[in-house]
Design goal:
The chain has about 180 residues and is mainly beta. Helix content is about 5%, strand content about 40%. It contains two helices and 13 strands; from the N terminus they run ββββββαβαββββββ.
């Protein structure tokens, strides 16, 4: 897969069902939107295959996300079944990110090069384990690498050109 500019048919994960909330089928969502309250603003939510699941109405903010009512989910049992379900919207429904900001999905598939132009692989995932974002990439031999997604270590992201430039890590070896 060649790297390219953002595709309108890509799906972007905006939330995941964390738990049922109450007895009437409300859901607690862990959100991945800049403003958690916007999770319902992008239209019906989809599953990973792109099938429409439901439209949500935000009821209240919650730690790490929001409480929502989902169309067609009317009791706690139905809500419990959805725990862990990741919720998506088409990329085209999202606003364009600000300068020097990116949707994780736009980075997946981009070529990773060092500052000399040598290929290191392709981005396969973007993670945030709590200490900042990390790009994971894989080379042609199937070896994985990771780099902190900071301006110091990743000085260039060229979405149109389908590539990311990574500064090689310098490690001093004790004598």
């Amino acid at each position: 897969m060649a790297g390219s500019a953002p595709s309108d048919d890509k799906l972007v994960c905006v939330a995941a069902v964390a738990a049922a909330h109450g007895v009437r089928g409300a859901l607690k969502l862990k959100t991945f939107t800049e403003d958690p309250l916007n999770v319902g603003a992008y239209g019906p939510l989809l599953d990973e295959a792109g099938h429409e699941l439901f439209t949500v109405r935000v009821v209240a903010p919650a730690k790490g996300g929001v409480i929502v009512e989902a169309e067609g989910i009317t009791d706690r049992d139905a809500a419990e079944v959805l725990r862990g379900l990741r919720l998506f919207v088409p990329r085209a429904r999202l606003p364009e990110p600000e300068a020097d900001s990116f949707y994780y999905e736009d980075l997946v598939g981009l070529e990773v090069e060092d500052t000399e132009g040598r290929s290191l692989g392709r981005v396969i995932a973007v993670h945030d384990f709590g200490a900042g974002e990390v790009l994971e990439y894989r080379d042609d031999a199937g070896r994985d690498g990771m780099v902190a997604f900071t301006t110091e270590l990743v000085p260039e992201v060229d979405l149109a050109g389908g590539r990311i430039v990574v500064v090689p890590e310098v490690r001093e070896v004790a004598a």
